[in-house]
Amino acid sequence: MAEATVLVEWFEDLRRGDVPRVGGKNASLGELIGALAPRGVQVPPGFATTADAYWRFVEHNGLRDVVSGALAKHEAGRLSLAEAGRHIRRAFLAGDWPDDLASAIRAAYAELSRRAGAGEVDVAVRSSATAEDLPDASFAGQQESFLNIRGADALIDACRRCYASLFTDRAISYRRAKGFDSLKVALSIGVQRMVRSDLGGSGVMFTIDTETGFDKVVLINAAWGLGENVVQGTVDPDEYQVFKPLLADPALVPIVEKRIGAKAQKMIYAAEGDGRTTRNVPTSRAEREDYVLGDDEILALARWAGTIEQHYGLPMDVEWAKDGATGELFVVQARPETVQSRRGSEGFATYRIRSKGRTLATGLSIGDAVVAGRVCVIEDAGDIGRFVDGAVLVTRTTDPDWVPIMKRAAAIVTDHGGRTSHAAIVSRELGLPAIVGTGDATRVLHGEQEVTVSCAEGDQGFVYDGRADYERVPLDLGDIPATRTKVMLNLANPAAAYRWWRLPADGVGLARMEFVVANLVKVHPMALVRFDGLRDETARQAIADLTAGYDDKTEYFVDRLARGLARIAAARFPDPVIVRMSDFKTNEYANLLGGAEFEPKEENPMIGFRGASRYYSPRYREGFALECRAIRRLREAMGFTNVVVMIPFCRSAKEADRVLEVMAENGLRRGQNGLEVYVMCEIPSNVILAEAFARRFDGFSIGSNDLTQLTLGVDRDSAELAELFDEQDEAVKWMIRNVIVEAHKAGAKVGLCGQAPSDHPAFAEFLVECGIDSISVSPDSFAAVKQRVAAAETAAGP
Ligand code: PEP
Ligand code: MG
């Protein structure tokens, strides 16, 4: 006797390989439930009807002849597509259920309701088409779904409509175009417990960073209501990022990003009890101002994402939903992520120019890329709305207000600024070519003009007329040699930190906290501490808006700063990440929201109230306490124990003692919980009294920018004196050589994090000869420096 035909299968009994029997969608749900439910991942339970069940329905109602007859007439031009489709669908909708099939579906539904502990459970009824001979064919999205179905009769009716939907006009013409025989395609029906995300929320998560392919974070998007809006990108969802390697410890909360989205609308059912149609409604103010998920839920989803990725052995794209009625979370779909995982490390390259137009402007080159595009001149931050995506941004200068359009530019050209200017540092991290300090770009270039921006020709950058003929030569990371000297990265923009994760760096040698404050916090810490007493009404209002959702204003500073730094720490974990406490100058602090009230006016801010001197001063002490709180959160609550603290601009040993004391008062005691504290070596006194500093700190990082300025007495920002600002001057080299020797005698480590080796790779050779322990460079010059270091090490012998 032939084996009994299986008409209905429980999801947990299905696997990936069952596509021919139940279609791709149901097979993948089966895989999810079968393999992952035992590991704690919740997937709404359910069952599927098989392809055999479909054929049973077709035979029982004599539908083969109906289908072939109508399609033949359509082919012959006697029926329009619409007429043929309607004819076939009517026949399906009028069909009777074979007794055994109807009772199998009813019995499974009764069992599903019993398992859910409900009289009659709400279900989603979805179509999953399958071509037996072509199991890989994708029919996704072609057939209908019916949501929110309750009761066996309603279910049976929805199943019939699912079958009929195999013959929507669109599905018929799709199969015809692809050469599939409509009589060889079957339909499996998935019946799954309904997740009431219309009352809760839903979204998508990826097990890698979708921008860069960084594989240590889970990215979660979340919006209120049904998931459609997030999938289609019609709402601006919340975004959370979780760092995977620290998820295993239940005491840690490694949520490295929590950005609230506008979530202007949510999708719900058009009418109660009618799951077929949905509509968007505006969200309430409370919904817009609140996160869709709490921390525990974010962590739970991220853990599931990790489990799913592990099971499939691939980066995955996962849909999730939260039932607003029960508060439960579910995974509802999982498929391999395709964009980033295929891209590999293609982002790295060098450039060669074959022929080019007239030189229109020159300045300092930042980065090493060549880009052609149309000019968009914007002179005032108030006009940034006019920026055209993908254009070459030409401007006088930039500050944090410009970052949103800088991110969307093909290249950046400024009139003013040097290698350590905002435009230069931000472009470098965004991986964009920039030419800074041209003097006249905003005057000589004009909107819509086609130009080529070249940073591939050494120190000088060129803007050429028209589109140059150039070539991009990808850089093979495998060609970067290993070195004894550690080569680290200077990173300060959390939004761009993951971009460089593939570089074989030994950690972050300098993360400038003030950049993170300027980018993500935007408010002067003292203006948060003393918010109630603020005199500047405009600043007060702006701060109130920014800190909406934080009961305690100082918490806003700590939260934003800790998460921003966390992304930099995550990018290189577990290698050391040296976070330097804030080193704004007073004029820069004054530019932060509410800052003017707290900063003295100075004639020479560069040698004024900056660095260590602020931290113990009554003027700033409470602000520094917030910086310390952020570091503690980063190390203790999130788990980034790879974070090392660094003190900038420390003029004397006495100052060092006072700072270390204030840090200890704020819970950051050197040596406790493995905390290391470094000091910048950027003032001649740091070199002269190296031994005294070495006793107080775990290491030095040479700031060649300030050390050159203060050794030669040359203002580092002066265009007039640019020629005199030379880090390779013998006096500066003497300083560097000496501090390395003295520090090593005292048992302290020495690195260098100034701009010099990034701009002059030969400088790296000098540092290696001096026996430096580490060199930290901007990411775009990493490969060149690494090569120089390797060569110098070889020349020096073992
Ligand atoms: C330096 O002075 O070399 C340095 C790295 O610090 P900053 O450029 O931030 O002053
Ligand atoms: Mg400095």
Automatic annotation (TrEMBL):
It comes from Thalassobaculum fulvum. It comes from the Bacteria. Residues 482-793 form the PEP-utilising enzyme C-terminal domain. Keywords: ATP-binding, Kinase, Magnesium, Metal-binding, Nucleotide-binding, Transferase. Residues 389-458 form the PEP-utilising enzyme mobile domain. This is Phosphoenolpyruvate synthase. Residues 20-344 form the Pyruvate phosphate dikinase AMP/ATP-binding domain. Catalyzes the phosphorylation of pyruvate to phosphoenolpyruvate. Its cofactor is Mg(2+). The keyword Nucleotide-binding applies. Pfam families: PEP-utilizers (PF00391), PEP-utilizers_C (PF02896), PPDK_N (PF01326). It is an enzyme of class 2 (transferase).
